[in-house]
Amino acid sequence: MDKYINFVKFISKFCGVIATTLIASAILVIIDMVVERYVFNLSTSWQTEFVIYSLAAATFIGCPYVLLVKGHVNVELLPHYFDYKGKLFLALLASFMSLLFFIVLFVLGTEMWWKSYTENWTTGTIWNAKMWKLYLSFPIGMFITILQYIADIISLITKREMPFPGLEVTEEGNS
């Protein structure tokens, strides 16, 4: 179990690095676009699309990292009123429901990516990028997020991780 959890943590952290790189490259391209347009009075053709697709890919590929570091929004109103077992139940319920949601997203995203690949979809613009390359970030991000959810569920069940921040387990397993 530890090997799986550590492997998924490594992949999720790597996804965070990739997402950060994509965001940084989008920022540099925006700077380039502004300089080309307003300093040199040149037209830009590919920059806007590159920025849009880079930011979308950063969102999808960065998803497992956000889950790893618990960077998503938590509403902890109900868990506040429960003991450890109640909090664990809520955390597992939320994780399983989210896991199912991401499995659906992965299946649909893979279907969309495959269709764009087999039918050779392109953007239809001057840049005319192949859409399958752009769509690939979605199933990759969803798949690694699925792996991260499984690692989180294992961590909750085996008490490697507490269901909510600030919760400590006593010897009897209650907070």
How would you describe what is shown here?
By secondary structure, the protein is mostly helical. It has one domain (2-157). The chain is built from five helices and no strands. The chain has helices at 2-39, 47-68, 84-118, 131-135, 137-157. Residues 170-175 have low confidence and may be disordered.
Structure summarized in a few sentences:
This protein is mostly helical and 175 residues long. The chain has five helices and no strands.
Write the layout of secondary structure elements.
Elements: H1 2-39, H2 47-68, H3 84-118, H4 131-135, H5 137-157
Helix pairs in contact: 1-2, 1-5, 2-5, 3-5
List keywords for this structure.
mainly alpha; elongated
Alpha carbon gap, first and last residue: 25 Å
Which structural class should the secondary elements be placed in?
Answer: mainly alpha
Number of helices: 5
**Main β-sheet, in a few words?**
none
**Approximately what portion of the residues adopt beta-strand conformation?**
under 5%
Order of helices and strands: HHHHH
- pLDDT < 50 runs, ≥5 residues: 170-175
Rg for CA atoms: 21 Å
Shape: elongated
